[in-house]
Amino acid sequence: MKLLRKKSLWPYFMLTFLAVFSFFAISKQIKTVQAESIKGEHLITFYDRGTTSSILTDAKTLRDAIKEAKINLDQSDIVEPSLDEQLVSSNYDVNIYRARPVTIIDGPTRIRVMTAYQTAKQIADSVGIKLYSEDLTTMSLSSDLASDGAGLNMTITRAKTIKANIYGKDLELKTQAKTVQDFIDEKKLTLSENDRVSMNLSSPISENMTLKIWREGKQTVSADEEIEFGVEEIKDANRYIGYREISSQGKKGIRNVTYEVEIKNGEIISRNQISSVIITDPVKEIIIVGIKYNGPDFKSTETKQLWLTNSGISQLDWGYVDFIISKESNWNPNSVNRSSGACGLAQALPCSKVPGTPLDPIDNLKWANDYATKRYGSWEKAYNFWLVHKWW
Question: Are residues 288 and 350 in contact, defined by beta-carbon separation less than 8 angstroms?
């Protein structure tokens, strides 16, 4: 009978150990290479005449990134943000506005330009044409291909200028009114039984005509007063929270205000405003505000718990909140749905619903808590709704 000889297992153990060691070593090398390749890169998405394209680049400026993407620009094309924008963020959305022919029709004057500007004021400013707030502009497709080419016509209907003396104050005003009565209505003048007008109310308005309005009896005084400008904040998801820059400086307007005063023994005993005519419109101030989150790692449990605690959400609801937020944004506070515009942890739609800073995780969760309790009655009911509909 032949005896079987027992084989040693040591070579198999050594082979297995070497295979596992090699696997982990190669994995570590791959991760290192990936980390080095990602470091310093920017994801840039271009929107150009209805088409969308994206590149990963380590370019320093947007101009360099566009060259790398092999996007050809004409001299009159406009890019937002600007071509010399320094690339500091990891993601950028870039709009390219292509120049097209526009014929500006200003009375007998016709000016043809190639421009990418979108508003009438921008187009007029680009060729040195002054537009007043009372002027009207209309945009239409050119019907005369032979004369205007395949472009747009921008027709300016100029307001008439009249010289008005309103309650003792000489003013030069512009108007689109057809008659004196239309002018009074346009300027929001309220005439009393003691007021007088130098022309019939049905008289037509003509260029450089003179009109006088006064009040018989009580004395009137007029003064120019400043109008405070408004402020509009434009939220920029490419800039981090804390970034704030004035894009367009605001400017105060001026209005002429007339008061009826009653004087007794040399002193004013009553004063009532009877008219207010805007002479110069205020210019709104535009401020760019960064809303991109740049805080702790949003995937860590400690960070989630910190956000939930600071948002005021009851700990009993954290499980429901975690499920919904995980489905909506995977706990990424900078998540933005490009097709719908929904943003932040809870994917608020529209993004402007969120008070404060929409991409700030705590502001977004505070809004979500209010939304869940008011719309559904509780986070549990919101969770049950999500299970059925796959949205909330």
Answer: no
What pTM, to 2 d.p., does this model score?
0.53
Q: How far apart are CA 73 and CA 66, in angstroms?
A: 9
240-278 residue pLDDT tens: 777 889 999 999 999 999 998 887 776 778 889 989 999
Answer yes or no: are the C-beta atoms of 22 and 14 closer than 8 Å.
Answer: no
User: Which ranges constitute the DSSP H helices of 39-166?
Assistant: 62-68, 120-126, 145-148
Region of 120 on the Ramachandran plot (φ > 0 left; ψ -120 to 50 alpha; else beta): alpha
Cα distances (Å, whole numbers) of residue 116 to 20, 33, 74, 113, 232: 60, 42, 10, 10, 24
Q: Give the whole-angstrom CA distance, residue 181 versus residue 202.
A: 6
Domains of the chain, each with CATH number or no CATH? 42-97 (3.10.20), 100-157 (no CATH), 162-217 (3.10.20), 218-292 (2.20.230.10), 293-389 (1.10.530.10)
Contact status, residue 365 vs residue 379, Cβ threshold 8 Å: no
In this structure, are residues 166 and 213 in contact, taking their beta carbons and an 8 Å threshold? yes
